[in-house]
Amino acid sequence: xxxxxxxxxxxxxxxxxxxxxxxxxxxxxxxxxxxxxxxxxxxxxxxxxxxxxxxxxxxxxxxxxxxxxxxxxxxxxxxxxxxxxxxxxxxxxxxxxxxxxxxxxxxxxxxxxxxxxxxxxxxxxxxxxxxxxxxxxxxxxxxxxxxxxxxxxxxxxxxxxxxxxxxxxxxxxxxxxxxxxxxxxxxxxxxxxxxxxxxxxxxxxxxxxxxxxxxxxxxxxxxxxxxxxxxxxxxxxxxxxxxxxxxxxxxxxxxxxxxxxxxxxxxxxxxxxxxxxxxxxxxxxxxxxxxxxxxxxxxxxxxxxxxxxxxxxxxxxxxxxxxxxxxxxxxxxxxxxxxxxxxxxxxxxxxxxxxxxxxxxxxxxxxxxxxxxxxxxxxxxxxxxxxxxxxxxxxxxxxxxxxxxxxxxxxxxxxxxxxxxxxxxxxxxxxxxxxxxxxxxxxxxxxxxxxxxxxxxxxxxxxxxxxxxxxxxxxxxxxxxxxxxxxxxxxx
Length: 492
Prior knowledge:
Layout: H1 3-6, E1 14-18, E2 23-25, H2 26-42, E3 50-54, H3 59-70, E4 74-77, H4 84-94, E5 98-101, H5 107-116, E6 120-122, E7 150-156, E8 164-169, H6 170-184, E9 191-194, H7 201-213, E10 217-220, H8 226-235, E11 240-243, H9 245-255, E12 267-270, H10 277-287, E13 291-297, E14 302-306, E15 321-322, E16 326-330, E17 343-348, H11 360-366, E18 367-368, E19 371-380, E20 386-391, E21 396-398, E22 401-403, H12 405-413, E23 418-428, E24 432-441, H13 447-455, E25 466-469, H14 483-491
Parallel strand pairs: 1-10, 3-4, 3-5, 5-6, 9-10, 9-11, 11-12, 12-13, 24-25
Antiparallel strand pairs: 1-2, 7-8, 13-14, 14-15, 16-17, 17-19, 18-19, 19-20, 21-22, 23-24
Helix pairs in contact: 2-3, 4-5, 6-7, 9-10
């Protein structure tokens, strides 16, 4: 099964609604996909190519993504906030045929493309029409997309290695989409309010593609806005939304100042970071609908487990049961541990990626017999509910944005007065974690200067909120940095 085969509706029912008033029916969506696919073909895109996307949230992202897939190519959506330095690394890995962008969106990425000689194709600035590159569509015959085509290319960062490229195939995405539709009973009457960025699998796969596969409608604001959320939800008849806990927390705090209006939501979904039972309880009381915590990863094309909607049981603190795949908790030798015992969470099934691209070392460590080790610590109950007990990997999780400490350390170490640097996650009430750092300096250096140095080279969410200066970095018996001890030492 391919993604295109799942989105079968072609009538006048609303498919995509932008909060700026732009809307497309399913018939218009398919027409726009076909035209843009023809233009991309004229621009030289061939089956097996990668096409980078730097687009603000809205219908253009969805149409461009599906047009790339129609050509049997792979889409690589990038965060438009990336600096040129960040984008250069990602683009070097991806080797895209070209970049599709909007005028003024992602100037850092455009600069990096210029440096690397990657062609840049801008969509027309007239947002009242469907997206176009201004080219005559090629009418060359194509072969139909295949389930083994690589459809989505995303990076996932580690703490001790370069970011890894995850090549998700059509069949991986289709399996995840199908399980999401089935998990929540989505149908044509549903309206998803997509508040997550479409360069992540959360917003793209769960909020958007699953809704389109169900025949429903997707509401697409350009970004999450707490002040506009309820007006957009009510005016468009949204029946559900999915978000990271940070967004749920913001909505909860705002509700204390401005009452929530009558709405048509039937559930809210939480994923991409741990949802505390306290926040879940408060949110359910405010919304008067169930809040369903789920568990997803890029390597699994997003959803792996979820708490079910009523009348089935949902368990606060748990991410629910497996959806469309198998889940196990394993010991270091890949053997399952007993129910209720903590082990490394591993997953196997049709939505799981075959392996990282061009990274045999990472594949050897993470994949075996179809199983993928997630790097998360968790335990399974006897009846299959998964509870996550902490991250084995040392990624910093800022409101669902996964940040590699190594990437930020590399930037700090590029400053001439920094001799050593260690980056770690600092607990934060709003974001769950924020980025903090300690350094050993070669000579006296102002903290503001270090933060400004990072801000010029990193997207804003990766910039440390604090930098402490230490005489030495603490290490363990083997010489490894003890990140988990650093926050306590800095606080002393």
